[in-house]
Amino acid sequence: MDKKVLLKRMKGNPFFVIGAILALVILIVCFCSPLFIRFNPIVNSTAEKLHSPEGLKNGLSGHIFGTDQLGRDVLSRLLIGGRFSLLIAFIVVILQTLIGTILGIIAGYIGGIVDSVIMRLCDVFLAIPNLILAIAIMSVLGSSPKNLVIVLVVSGWVSYCKVTRNSVRVVKNQDFVHASQVMGAGKMHIMMTQIFPNVTTNLIILASQEIGNTILIEAALSFLSLGIQPPTPSWGNMISTGRTYLMVRPWLVLVPGIALMLTVLAFNFLGDGLRDVFDPKRVS
Amino acid sequence: MDHLLQIQDLCVEFKTERAVSKALNGVNLTVDKGESLGLVGESGAGKTTTALASLNLLSKNASHKGDIRFQGKSVFQMKDKELLDIRGDKISMIFQNPLTALNPVFTVGEQIAMVLRVHRGMNKKDARKQAGELLEMVGIPRNRVHDFPNQLSGGMRQRVGIASSLACNPELLIAEPTTALDVTIQAQILELMKNLQEQYNTSLIMITHNLGIIAELCHKVAVMYAGRIIEYGTVREVFSTPLHPYTRGLLGALPSLDEDKKRLTAIPGNVADPRKLPTGCRFHPRCDLQDNKCADKCPEMICITEDHYVECWYHGGGND
User: pTM for the complete prediction?
Assistant: First the structure.
């Protein structure tokens, strides 16, 4: 597609602009945070525990969002924790999309027994609630970031597979697929070059929303102390430990909670925007 | 000499859960190099099935008897690799509905270039350039290679379809165009195809239910009814002295500019149901010449002259 047209569409789409800017800011701030944070997010300093947020009163070197029950700076923990949460979310979503899409295309295009086997496999995964599956796997494998990724991928690829498979079944009976068969295209070419680009719209939306969703599930697992283990910060375990102080020191929950909400929102907006921008069926 | 395409006793059945549908019941057809053949018949007569069978692209639930030879080699015995090489390169097909035959997510240039890259092994740049030339040949400005199918009109999309089928100079072109186009565009497309056919000496099978198109474009015509060819010959012979009652019915259903006809004659009844075909001559329930013989036995193809064959007990009209 023409770059000019793409750029014009991007500018004209408020969802995309807001989502992209927000997501970009969050990503840059989180991933560059080791360069500028003033406090070690892991080391305790009991003298300074449970300070209220100071805002910008003491400039950038103060505890802008206060400190937690062990005297660690909330902002530093937020940024470093965000790094983990986002990194895990991206890796998980990429792996999920790959597995789900490939299986979905194969099931949808080849059909028959292959389709049945893959779809029943999906049903099996759907029948087990995500969180319970995750808890089961984590308690067997033990909690480490690698296992966390495995758990999230295993419990999440099904929706991509189902979505892709259904769109492939619609697309595969269209004339242009027959036309490319007549023109001498092989099965691989038809699956990957002719059909796949036609089903990406749904996938982009799903994947960008899944980023938010994955952060949430990861937070939930960390909240249940099955995810990222303290003292390494993550938004989930920050909320989980802050919960105890909810009535008296609400910022301990509110700060990571709002960060989580903004991130999820940003990626959902981005997903909606991307769908409109990349829609090849749109005129102009 | 070998024929370019030779179809021998081709029978095709589609098995569905409820019934067996006999789409083709013994089709014999030959196409020589440079020849253009019109295939006419009502919807469901088996025209498209014949075309798809010659590419060995029948769906999985179809079973076939008989043989189709392309350049002396049976398409049913070819390996997958050989078939992929033939499709789009030696035999090419233009689809009936230009509005859906193009992939909506690629520019038309990319789609034409794809054919060239697969069959001719061209690199991206050369293929793109050639695609531009092909578009110009079918009368679309070169700068529209970057357009998506939805930015083109139906007629232009049909031309893109033609351009991509002609990309590799096929030996045989199976065309099923124009059904979805208005008459002025249709005339342009036909003119275009006629020129191209003369220029490249391509053989052509034209599938249509429009007799006018056949008279315009083809040397020979085969009339199909219920999965059989019932009359075959040069266009001049068949259209001036139609022998089969069905052909006569088809021609009688056309309005004429010369005669002052009050009413067009219609053929009574419906197309034979391929799930339960009538016995004997498949056309007899709708035929006004029918008698017991017709219901009992299917007639053989009779050679009237070198240029004219018919499959009817009472060809020519009289009960002899």
Answer: 0.75
